[in-house]
Write a structure and sequence with these properties.
Two copies of one chain form a homodimer.
Chain A lengths: L3 E6 L3 E7 L5 E8 L6 H18 L10 E5 L2 E3 L4 E3 L13 H9 L3 E5 H12 L8 E6 L3 E7 L2 E3 L28 H5 L1 H13 L6 H7 L7 H9 L3 H25 L3 E5 H19 L12 E3 L6 H8 L3
């Protein structure tokens, strides 16, 4: 029986699974993503994580039919390389992840874009399996996206899915990408944190950064945002509302163009805010829908945190 | 040999063609769209136009393998009905165009959305035939759109292609659709005219409305806009720049989401401004592209005015 490996390489943690032919998890492991060093150090941790998961599944890594890696940055699926992964240490140029990790493990390795891999997992195993077409909205540090058309992930010339760089306000807020008015500039957790920090510097009261320190975080995680909102923190509430308003516009525009069956929301904040968040996104989207008498359902991803690793394993299915 | 009919039903004119199996035109006719009356009157003119085109092709209408109609408004392809066609006289409710016209002609009739039909013509016979995927941008009174994915028009749940209702400025200018900040609110010829009129009322100098009257028009046609720009009319230049800036954002957002092979620009203004307009749209789009080192070509539709009727004939191919 052919077991496969899947690794979700995130900015803070590495999640590895070994699955069987039905995508049932036979072993798993989790490690911290190195904060210093370079691609070599990250690949060493990837190897350690999948080896640990393989051990839990009682196989050797070289016995795996293959290992898939979902990665941030610019992924070249065919070449098996990852470039410009800003959230990973010392990772500017292109690095041959598939080749280097493959040599360490003694099996074939494929790499894919982290968001697309997670959306593919939802399509095959999760919330997307009921729909012929849907828009995946991955709400985290950035806003990732993916479009499923006729039950297939649409990649276009290779980079389709950049929903986060939908212009929702011409000449608007600066985006981490260097452009202006992108959805991500309003709704990405990174942009939300920058705005919260500026507001605090200007005298706004907020528990956001106290909660961050209390929880020993060095940035505003999804958990910190959720906790601040539970405490009725005005700044947090306002910034999340602003994010949802922008998400409504960006998602509404995508649906006007593509008239899809559904929207599947995932990512750190998407998962954290759950059904309530999905309902609020649906409400924010409705006023922008051109055909507004049959709005598509907005549902939360079903695989949550493990979707990335499960989807990565699908790269070698 | 099976001849087919195609009718482009526009707000000002009705264009009919009879084509052979290679889509070569064997006969054509043009009539004015009725300005008063109701759907029955429009359908009578449709029948007259295609009968005239058939006569030119030396066949009787009932000998045609079928007749396709590209129509504005809400088109239900399966039911063969058209509803809420605001630019046509007395046309609010749903009217069974396929049935009524079919009875008059003695052959089968199919109806399709005017923009999608024109884009389908470009896909099969025109500027789109070279591309696996492209975005059709129909720049006229409104902003129509259509998405070709894997050489097929993507309709989604039936209404895909509403590029004109991409939100380019959250909370922005009022759109004819009743929403705010849509691309069409900035770039639709109807919105441009309203803004020009308001500017003139507020004292702005412009030759736009003089040219309109001199050319015996009751609205600012594409020809009037082009003539005003040729005379260096500042208001016209400014409003066209504003439109192109909005088009750049809307098209850029669509490409970020779908990473398509090309953009095909058509419609009254799109055709009128031609290659120069396409170049300016490409320039306005570039700053919004997430992957900006290989911008897709922006090309002008090749079939121009006759694309609508040729595409309508494809409905019965």
């Amino acid at each position: 029986m052919a077991l496969r490996g899947g690794i979700d390489l995130g900015g803070t943690k590495i999640e590895a699974v070994v699955v069987d032919e039905d995508s049932a998890v036979r072993g798993s492991a989790r490690r911290e993503t190195p904060r210093t060093g370079g691609p070599q150090d990250v690949v060493r941790e990837l190897a350690a994580a999948i080896s640990e998961a393989a051990e839990a599944a009682e196989v050797f890594p070289e016995e795996l039919a293959g290992v898939g890696v979902g990665s941030p940055g610019e992924v070249d699926r065919r070449a098996g390389t990852v470039a410009r992964a800003g959230n990973l240490p010392g990772w500017r140029g292109s690095f041959p992840v598939a080749e280097e990790l493959g040599q360490k493990l003694g099996t074939q390795v494929r790499v894919g874009n982290d968001v697309r891999v997670a959306v593919e997992a939802e399509r095959v195993l999760g919330a997307g399996r009921r729909y012929r077409s849907f828009l995946g909205v991955w709400w985290g540090t950035g806003i990732g996206g993916a479009v499923v058309i006729d039950r297939k992930l649409w990649l276009g010339l290779g980079s389709a899915g950049e929903l986060g760089h939908t212009v929702v306000r011409l000449g608007g807020a600066p985006c981490p990408c260097g452009r202006f008015g992108c959805l991500e500039a309003y709704a990405g957790r990174g942009s939300m944190e920058r705005r919260a920090r500026r507001a605090q510097e200007k005298g706004a009261k907020t528990v956001l950064f106290d909660l961050m320190q209390k929880n020993k975080r060095d940035r505003l995680t999804s958990g910190v945002w959720a906790a601040a909102i539970e405490r009725d923190d005005e700044l947090a509430i306002r910034l999340v509302e602003r994010a949802i308003s922008a998400l409504g516009a960006g998602i509404g525009s995508a649906l006007n163009l593509l008239d899809l069956d559904a929207v599947v929301v995932g990512g750190g904040l998407g998962t954290r805010f759950g059904d309530d968040g999905a309902r609020r996104i649906a409400d924010a989207m409705l006023p922008h829908l051109f055909v507004d008498d049959r709005p598509p359902p907005v549902v939360v991803s079903e695989l949550g945190d493990s979707g990335g690793a499960l989807g990565a394993a699908l790269l070698v299915a």
